[in-house]
Design goal:
Phosphofructokinase_CS, kinase, elongated, 6 strands, 2 domains, single chain, alpha+beta, fructose-6-phosphate binding, two-stranded antiparallel sheet, Rossmann fold
């Protein structure tokens, strides 16, 4: 990033305008930017659907599978008695995921309190705290109250 290259970013809501679609904006910038800049489009929903795994994906998959196998082995040793496995505690059913740059095992019983089952999403979204910044960048004429709790409103 410490070069003379300048970058721009266009963020767009899929429901903002029926005429200015993502494809239209991409084609407009591509046509007008010939020889001056290039243009790429990226739809996050499409990115989340996967594709060809990158070396990072393969490495990360290996790391989390190794960590999961260590956890399973440890739990089997802890709960094995008289030829049987007694997995009847809350921490015997866990989900492995990233929390603030760390791989963390979280009991599913704890996740129940953090999940909105009707809408199939977490009750608190970390990125909602970025809304005041997005309003500033979009030059909204509004109050920039940063006391947003990050709760999601369903409409």
């Amino acid at each position: 990033m410490k070069t003379s290259i300048q970058r721009g970013l266009v963020l767009r809501n899929e429901n903002c305008n029926e005429n200015y679609t993502t494809d239209f904006i991409y084609q407009l910038y591509s046509e007008e930017g010939k020889g001056v800049f290039d243009c790429r489009k990226n739809v996050l929903g499409h990115m989340q659907q996967g594709g060809a795994p990158s070396p990072f994906d393969r490495n990360f998959g290996t790391k989390i599978s190794a960590k999961a196998m260590q956890w399973i082995s440890k739990k089997l040793k802890e709960t094995y008695r008289k030829g049987k496995v007694f997995a009847n505690t809350d921490d015997s059913v866990c989900l492995l995921g990233m929390r603030r740059r760390n791989l963390v095992f979280q009991p599913v019983a704890e996740l129940k309190n953090e999940t909105d089952f009707v809408h199939r999403i977490p009750k608190e979204q970390w990125w909602l705290k970025l809304r005041p910044l997005m309003k500033i960048l979009a030059k909204y004429k509004t109050s920039y109250d940063v006391s947003d709790s990050g709760q999601l409103e369903h409409v």
